[in-house]
């Protein structure tokens, strides 16, 4: 037997410790970050762990010389705005990189406007430039269904779609594409573009947050900016969440972030106008009930469909 062949046989492991691979690859760290950074989303986190287990097994099989194919890793993330889709995509890019399925591990996030041109000859170079930036990583296309506009005869989205489909098939070893958007619209998009459905193996649905999860998110967002609620402010925020989610255009964590930005604005104005002397760090960092309850969400009249202020 040739020496090279003998060396290959000797270097091929006869067994693999998946738990050791889990620790050494850094996948454990990525999943821990996901748990730390995202409140709730238990079914999403479960699917990410399952995907990580599949990829660990596939990598082990490859190291043992077992027949294998690179698994199809293109994904679809569906759910309402503010449910963590972009954050999970970032973590997925890190996970795939640590396991050796993509070279770089970066995320390129785009929408239709980044891919589709306004005139003949404009779309192909725009799409190819984005794909060039994304190679070796993950391309995240938010509101992907806007690529397809059959009602407009002069729309160039179909050209971008054809380029994407070709790259997803021919260069899947060097690029992972994640399509994201509302569940119903994404389903109609796949029905109209079966080429995408056939190339996507992982469909993950992101549920809306529960009220208490949104409250935890609010507390965490404030902590990250060195703010906090006092007891009355926390109770007011709980009440705000229950009311706000019943109004139009509620966007989960995104709406909570907007509400906190406005609460901080009110707090700053309250302190500026009412301060009679030096203010402590605690006063400068505390959101009170009046900063929350001044929102029009608490008004008796409906908000007119606008984001609660």
Explain how this protein is built.
- The protein has 309 residues and is an alpha/beta fold.
- It contains 15 helices and 7 strands.
- The protein has helices spanning 3-11, 18-24, 27-37, 42-63, 85-98, 112-115, 123-134, 157-170, 183-192, 194-199, 211-224, 231-244, 253-274, 281-284, 289-293, and strands at 75-79, 107-110, 138-142, 176-181, 202-206, 228-229, 286-287.
- It has a 5-stranded parallel β-sheet with strand order 2-3-4-1-5, sandwiched between helices. A two-stranded parallel sheet has the order 6-7.
- Strand 3 (138-142), helix 8 (157-170) and strand 4 (176-181) form a beta-alpha-beta unit.
Integer-rounded radius of gyration? 24 Å
Overall shape: it is globular
Q: Give the termini distance in whole angstroms.
A: 77 Å
Major sheet: size, sense and barrel closure?
5 strands, parallel
Give the rounded overall mean pLDDT.
89
Strand order of the largest sheet: 2-3-4-1-5
Tally of helical segments: 15
Low-confidence stretches: 3-9
| DSSP helix fraction | 40-55%
Into which percentage range does the β-strand content fall?
5-15%
Helix-strand string: HHHHEHEHHEHEHHEHEHHHEH
Structural class: alpha/beta
Query: How many beta-strand segments?
Result: 7
Task: Give keywords.
single chain, alpha/beta, five-stranded parallel β-sheet, two-stranded parallel ribbon, 9% strand, globular, disordered N terminus
List the helices and strands and how they pair.
Layout (H helix, E strand, L loop, with lengths): L2 H9 L6 H7 L2 H11 L4 H22 L11 E5 L5 H14 L8 E4 L1 H4 L7 H12 L3 E5 L14 H14 L5 E6 L1 H10 L1 H6 L2 E5 L4 H14 L3 E2 L1 H14 L8 H22 L6 H4 L1 E2 L1 H5 L16
Parallel strand pairs: 1-4, 1-5, 2-3, 3-4, 6-7
Helix pairs in contact: 3-4, 3-5, 7-8, 11-12, 11-13
């Amino acid at each position: 037997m040739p020496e090279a062949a003998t060396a290959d046989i000797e270097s091929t492991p006869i067994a693999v410790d998946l738990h050791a691979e889990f620790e050494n690859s850094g996948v454990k760290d990525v999943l821990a970050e996901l748990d730390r950074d995202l409140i709730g989303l238990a079914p999403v986190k479960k699917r990410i762990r399952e995907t990580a287990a599949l990829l660990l097994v596939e990598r082990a099989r490859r190291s043992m010389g077992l027949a294998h194919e690179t698994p199809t890793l293109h994904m679809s993330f569906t759910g309402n705005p503010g449910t963590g889709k972009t954050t999970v995509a970032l973590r997925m890019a890190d996970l795939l990189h640590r396991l050796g399925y993509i070279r770089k591990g970066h995320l390129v996030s785009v929408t239709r406007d980044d891919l589709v041109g306004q005139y003949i000859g404009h779309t192909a170079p725009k799409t190819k430039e984005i794909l060039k930036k994304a190679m070796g990583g993950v391309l995240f296309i938010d509101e992907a269904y806007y690529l397809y506009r059959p009602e407009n005869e002069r729309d160039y989205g179909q050209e971008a779609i054809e380029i994407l489909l070709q790259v997803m098939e021919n260069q899947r070893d060097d690029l992972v594409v994640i399509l994201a958007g509302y569940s119903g619209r994404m389903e109609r998009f796949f029905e109209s573009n079966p080429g995408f459905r056939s190339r996507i193996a992982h469909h993950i649905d992101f549920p809306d947050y529960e009220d208490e999860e949104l409250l935890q998110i609010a507390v965490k967002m404030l902590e990250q900016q060195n703010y906090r609620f006092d007891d009355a402010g926390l109770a007011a925020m709980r009440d705000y969440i229950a009311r706000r989610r019943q109004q139009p255009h509620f966007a989960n964590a995104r709406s909570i972030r907007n509400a906190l930005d406005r609460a901080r604005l009110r707090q700053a104005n309250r302190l500026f106008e009412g301060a009679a002397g030096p203010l402590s760090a605690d006063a400068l960092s505390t959101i009170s009930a009046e900063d929350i309850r001044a929102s029009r969400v608490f008004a008796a009249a409906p908000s007119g469909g606008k984001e609660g202020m």
